Amino acid sequence: MARSLNLEDNCFLDKYGERALMQARFNFFPPCPRPDRSLGLKPHADGSAITIVLQDKEVEGLQFLKDDQWFRVPIQLPHALLINVGDQSEVMSNGFFKSPVHRVVTNSERERTSVAVFCSPDPDNDIEPVDGAVSETRPRLYKKVQDYGSKYLQYYQKGKRAIEAATKILPFVDEPTAQSTPTSVFFLKLSSFSLFLVNKGSAFFKGFEVKLCLCNPPDFALQYTAEACVTFPFGEKP
Ligand SMILES: O=C(O)CCC(=O)C(=O)O
Ligand SMILES: [Fe+2]
To answer: Pseudo-torsion of CA 146, 96, 216, 199, nearest 10°?
Structure first.
């Protein structure tokens, strides 16, 4: 990425620091009889620096927004990893790389799984455009941001984009983050569907042991207006 902008090789990597973060999210999208009425994942951009996505090899669903149109991501290339630019790369590159908005649509007949690994700099490192990406002809577009990941979640839960507040004009509004329950495994039951979510910890997901996972239960709960929401203690099956 640095080389493609004619910048120092390590200029982005140096920002990751000693305690760079890697968080894995295992997504399970059950079949949904009304794909026209519900989304698997609402439109969002990732708060990471980069995200590595392994899509379901049989069921499509991921779409990216470009010029006000949604584009499907094909799955024809087996075992391909999709590398997505996240907000923190947009900030560090001073907007040369854009963090695209994407969503996941549901399928009426088939379930879909995906794994997203979010790679981010050490949260203690402030994020700002690297020197080489700012010049007289390209003024600095983003301000210095502390702990981008936390700000991202606060904004995300309100359906807003933190990157917009990272531009130089708008101030960040610091508000308390929604409480997330310490339970590790959530099963949300909506009629015959279930959604499996993993917070920090480890659990079994479709026969694989899942470790080091982080996602945001309150946020997901908003996406699925569950008629009945049942949470189970870690490790138990419904
Ligand atoms: O399911 C996918 O293909 C992508 C998931 C995604 O965008 C995410 O977990 O942030
Ligand atoms: Fe995403």
So the answer is: -90
Q: Whose CA is nearest to atom 5 of ligand 1?
A: 116
Name the residue with tokens 């531009």: 167
| DSSP secondary structure letter of residue 129 | -
Could you tell me if the CB of 62 is within 6 A of ligand 1? yes
Atom of ligand 1 nearest to the CA of 25: 9
Which atom of ligand 1 lies nearest, measured to the CA of 112?
1
Question: CA quadruple 200, 19, 49, 176: dihedral positive or negative?
Answer: positive
User: At which residue do the structure tokens 């130089």 appear?
Assistant: 168
ipTM value > 0.95: yes
Q: In 3-state terms, what secondary structure has residue 144? A: coil
Please give the structure tokens belonging to residue 189: 């039951």
Residues surrounding ion ligand 2 at CB below 5 Å: 46
Architecture of the 3-231 domain = Sandwich (2.60)
Q: Is the pLDDT of residue 49 over 80?
A: yes
Tokens of 124: 């203690």
User: Closest residue (by CA) to atom 8 of ligand 1?
Assistant: 116
State in Å, rounded, how far the first CA of the chain is from the last one.
44
Could you tell me the pTM of the whole model?
Answer: 0.76
Q: How much of the chain, in percent, has pLDDT values that exceed 70?
A: 71
